[in-house]
Every structure is written in C-alpha cells, then in structure tokens.
Amino acid sequence: MAEAKKVILRISRFNPEFDEKPHFQDFEIEIPKGMTVLEALYFIKENIDPTLTFRGFCRSAICGSCSVKVNGHPKLACKTQIWQEIERFGTNILKIEPLGNMKVIRDLAVDFSEAEEKLKKVKPYLIPDPEVIPDTNDEESIVYPEEMEKFDKFTDCILCGTCYSMCPAVMFIDDYAGPFQFGRIFRFAEDPRDGLKKERSKIAYAFELWKCIRCERCADICPKHIHPVEAVTHLRAMSIEKGLTLNPGARHAIAFYKSVTSTGMLNEAILPIMSKGIKGVLENMPVALSFLLKGKMPPPIVKPIEDIEGFKKVVSLSAEVE
Length: 322
Ligand code: SF4
Ligand code: SF4
Ligand code: FES
Known about the structure:
alpha+beta, Ubiquitin-like (UB roll), five-stranded mixed beta sheet, 13 helices, 7 strands, binds iron/sulfur cluster, binds FE2/S2 (inorganic) cluster, succinate dehydrogenase (quinone) activity, iron
C-alpha cells in the first residue's frame, strides 16, 4: 500500500448567498506521496463535499487556472505537492485560500475580470509591422535567436494571475496595469515583427509604469520563473527614450544616472531637487534640516572619483553590451 500521511486542509469557504465573509473549514484526509493540492481538492469534492468550488483544468501547469494560496503563498495547485509543503512549513495543517487582489466569487474561485480588462487595454497581441511581415504566405517572417532571446522568457506566461495577486501596486493603485500585463507589453515591444515596438512603452507609461515599487514579489512567486519586474525596468528605459520624463520616477532615474556617470558618485543633496523640483525640496525640508543639525547633510558639490575617465569607459562599454 502506498505511503500516506494524515493532513488537515484548512480551506477558505465563502458562499455569497449565505456568508457575510469567508470562514475556514477543516478536511482531514490521507495524502499519498506525490499528491498535489489540486488532486486533494478534487478528492474532497468527489468524496466529501461536492459544493467545494475551485478552478482547475490542465493539471500540468499550462492553463494557469488553478492558482490558490497555500499557507499564504500563491502557487499553482496542480504543481504543488502536499508532502513538500508539509516539510517546508513543518506542519500537517495547510491553509488553502483564494488569490488576493481579486474579489472572491465562491470558496477558492476569484473574479479575474479586472485583471483581464487591464490586459485587454494594453493590446496584448502582435500588431504586424507591414515593413517586416510580408503580404503573402510565400515568405517567412523570421525572428532570429538573438532577437528572440530578449523576450522569449515572457512568452512562457500562462496568465495564472499569481503575480497580480501579490502585487502591492495593484492593491493600492486603481490604474496600475499589473506585473503580467507589463510583461506582455514588453514581450511585444521587443518583437521585431511588431508595428508599435518601443512605442508600446507609452501604453505602459499610461498605466502607471513608474508606480512599481520594485519589491520583486512578482518575480519571487511566478511559477514559470518569469521576472515581470525586468519588463518594468526595460519599459521605463524605453519610455525615457521616447521622451516621457514628466514624472518624479523618470526624473529620479535620469538624475541618478547623470550624477553617477559624471562623477562616479551619487549626489544625494541634489537628487530631490532634480526628481521633484521645488516641491520636492519643500517636502524634504524637515529631513534636510534634521540632517543639517546633526552634521549629516550630504555635500551639494561632489568631487569626481580619482579614475573618472576609466569609470566612464566602463559605463560606455556596458551600454554597448546592453
Ligand atoms: S515589483 Fe512591481 S510589479 Fe512586481 S509585485 Fe512589486 S510592485 Fe508589483
Ligand atoms: S508572469 Fe508568472 S505569475 Fe504572472 S501571470 Fe504570468 S506565469 Fe503567472
Ligand atoms: S490546472 Fe492548469 S495550471 Fe493548474
């Protein structure tokens, strides 16, 4: 007989017809080695409680439908083995909850429509460049490996929403597109067959690109090991190239770059002025005064480092490599 462990699945239940708010219900079941969270949910539905509601389809980490939180961490239920989670958390109780940042429809099923609407708005499809894509089917439109490499990883996204569910910018900023949405914009911005290419950074900019706080949560939890925050970084650079600099984030990045590349040092004293203008200076006045009183005010003029010319060569070489 296969080895099995008794495990309590503490599942969040919510039926909008009867419940004011979600509550937990425990299901104690025998879990054989290798059983996934999704298989356990199906077992409960088929053998204990047919009303348990969740999503799942491919059971192969492809369709992106089965994401849930397991002990607070969003994961694909079909890719998450229960024994491994028990060992990781050192407990035989696993809390299974719906994803965050989305309204719960019932039990573990969430309403994906807001994330989906945002995705639609950012044009997540190839807009053919007539100069690159031939009119007839007789010729191929080739993407070379070195071009593909730039965006290839982002084509692995299965739209599972895991990154979206943990993103603090999504939580607090209504118009913020979201991590996988920025990943999709970047994927097409780098595609040589696309008609908009880097112009797509303007779409990203309109959807609060600079509000990402670079917490990297999206990258940490993506089941496909995609780094949406990298897309954000590249799109920011593209948007600056396109002249979209009228916001504190872009101005901060430009001031940072100018300071470091001209002297080899960061001029912290002028950064608030360059980033936020006079408003920034006034906002930072109490902090600046306390620095001044404690003798910790950074000097307004920064002397270049000793080998500044060598440093500039390194900067220009790294720009060429990019
Ligand atoms: S790095 Fe940006 S996009 Fe990713 S979770 Fe944090 S705020 Fe959201
Ligand atoms: S980027 Fe990763 S976590 Fe986000 S939707 Fe795509 S596959 Fe899921
Ligand atoms: S069931 Fe398709 S990704 Fe899990």
